[in-house]
Amino acid sequence: MRIMTVCLGNICRSPAAEAVLARRLEEAGLTDVTVTSAGTADYHVGSQPHPVSREEGEGRGYTFTSVALQLAADHFDEVDLVVVMDASNEADVLALARTPQDAAKVVRLGAFASDADAAVRDVPDPWGMPREAYVRMYDQIEDAVDGLVRAIQDGTVEDVLAAQRALRG
């Protein structure tokens, strides 16, 4: 399985989710799953993750290997799952989807959270906010990533995607 995490600028939330997911997948022994990240905008292409996001993540034991990339329609050909951080990212990514098959790959990370229900919670963008916003972001990402890894392990990822597609209409 190939997963891409996506936020707006690809310097705060999506590289954090990429780093958390990469470590959790490794810990779970899921070596056949890869993860990358991208942003819907081109604001930070080529940049390292935001310093506060990186510091908080490294303090939690995560490593960062990617630089900011802008999502393009052809990325759908390279991944099996596009995990977005919020409803705005979801709308932007769905606008790039060329086919119903592309759109079917898109899901919000919050759909895998321990408190997920019909109203999926977004991962708020911490950019420009105090450090505490980054702490909350990581807490939320870690919880949802744990749910995503469990869904991969027990084969229920498609069930979560189907439920989210039904909510989108």
From TrEMBL:
Domain Phosphotyrosine protein phosphatase I, first and last residues per copy: 1-151
Domain of life: Bacteria
Top-level class of the enzyme under EC nomenclature: hydrolase
CDD domains to which the protein is assigned, alphabetical: LMWPTP (cd16343)
EC number(s) per entry: 3.1.3.48
Keyword Hydrolase: yes
One Pfam family cited in the UniProt record for this chain: LMWPc
SMART domains linked to this entry: LMWPc
Keyword Hydrolase among UniProt keywords: yes
Family: Belongs to the low molecular weight phosphotyrosine protein phosphatase family.
Protein name, entry field: protein-tyrosine-phosphatase
Organism: Ornithinimicrobium pekingense
Gene name of the record: ptpA
